[in-house]
Amino acid sequence: MPSAVYVHIPFCRIRCPYCDFDAYRAPRRAIEGHTEALLAEIASRRHELRPITTLYFGGGTPTTAGAAGLRAVIDALRAAPGIVPESEVTVEANPTPRDAAIFGELQDLGVTRVSLGVQSFTDRLLPMLGRDHSATEAAEVIDRALRLGLEVSLDLMCGVPGQTMADWSSDLATAVGLAPGHISVYMLTLEAGTRYERLHAGGRLELPGEDEQADMYEAALEWLGAAGYDHYEVSNLALPGRQSRHNRVYWENREYAGFGAGASSFVAGQRWTNENHPTAYAEAIRSGARSLSLLERLPPERAMRETLALGLRLLEGVDLTAVRERYGAERLARMLPVLQSLAARELVTVAGRAALTRRGLMLYDGVAAEILAP
Ligand code: SF4
User: Is 195 helix (H, G, I), strand (E, B) or coil?
Assistant: First the structure.
């Protein structure tokens, strides 16, 4: 039974041109309807859960549910199965005064951590990214969260149109100066169906080249490492003791329960995803049906491959003894030629653990594809 819970709020106030998430701009009525459905889903599935140790509100933009909506969900989970006192409770938010205005209320509810989609501290680039905050506002929001005693994670993006290495260095310096406990660094990728993809296809969007983007990523690892941030996952760095406990559940391929439109769950070897569209989700929940758009039972070999691919995202790597105990010696033995082939190309090291090399880190997507290939 999972003790990690993810709650998905699929609404946003803005539509960022690079983002391919299912995120809807909806009237308050629709957001409240989704919250009601969430509460009904929690009531019908609370027996599936152990007392919660990590709770994560993601989206979309979870703060669109308002402090009252988030309070209702937290209260429902606190009533049963319960939230253990030292649990990590994260809410994703935008670094705007509007979101910062409810940080105090969120903290009173037991929220311990905010994850902020800053992306850039360069004012010139923010409109291009579709963001509705300024660099100064973002810095003030981070400062406010830290002063309240919340843990702060911030997302930064490199490879943004028009971004220079000087911009990126300045963003990293600003981030380090603000001293959040956790920083995620993402390279911009062109996702299918996004405005950026359409602009790029029409020759109206120029992106920094792959080499330039890789240089920016390397520069981030260097800068942040020198400032005391431990690079513990492909895209994530943290000060000592500030790693994301909830996200480690995914990277370690452990069980979690997801609630809300589009939320995924992984329980007892089964994985399912709720209906994506909030209206379809709310209707299915109201009618008493299980709101599923996808249900699969993972064969053990597939589950093992996923455990290896996800675990390699952690710089500490995957404990192969634990993989052998979880999936059996024969299954792991069948994977060893794949790992040895990757090791021969200096993409991973294989001893008691399998772990990415520095070269493998830069080529993680290809490494994962080889491990997941049947
Ligand atoms: S990046 Fe975040 S705020 Fe922007 S559209 Fe996607 S989910 Fe919404």
Answer: helix
- Express each pLDDT in 159-215 by its tens digit: 999 999 999 999 999 999 999 999 999 999 999 999 999 999 999 999 888 899 999
- Ligand 1: atom nearest CA of 19 is 6
Under the banding of pLDDT at 50, 70 and 90, the label for residue 70 is very high
Looking up residue 341, the CATH number of its domain turns out to be 1.10.10.920
5 C-alpha to center of ligand 1: Å?
21
Number of H helices, E strands in the chain: 15, 15
Q: Which atom of ligand 1 is nearest to the CA of 12?
A: 8
Pairing label, strands 151-158, 182-187: parallel
Q: Which residues line ligand 1 (CB under 6 A)?
A: 12, 14-16, 19, 21, 23, 59-61, 117
Query: For residue 294, is it within any domain?
Result: no
Q: What is the pLDDT of residue 219?
A: 97
Tokens, residue 156: 């930064």
Give the whole-angstrom CA distance, residue 186 versus residue 109.
Answer: 30
* Atom 2 in ligand 1: residue holding the nearest Cα: 60
Distance in angstroms (rounded) separating the CA atoms of residues 309 and 365: 9
Alpha carbon of 130 to ligand 1 centroid (Å): 9
Is 287 within a domain? no
Q: Which pLDDT score, from 0 to 100, does residue 241 have?
A: 97
Distance CA 147, CA 154 (A): 16
In terms of pLDDT, which residue wins out, 295 or 365?
365
The total number of structural domains that make up the chain: 2
Q: Which residues form the domain of 150?
A: 4-251
**Pair 123, 180 in one domain:** yes
Q: Is 70 helix (H, G, I), strand (E, B) or coil?
A: helix
Strand order in the sheet with 270-274: 264-267, 270-274, 292-297
In this structure, how many other beta carbons lie within 10 angstroms of the beta carbon of residue 43? 13
Pairing of strands 270-274, 113-119: unpaired
C-alpha neighbours within 13 Å on the C-beta side of residue 13: 14
CATH number, position 165 = 3.20.20.70
- Report residue 26's pLDDT band, with 50, 70 and 90 as the boundaries: confident
Neighbours of 360 (CB within 10 A): 21
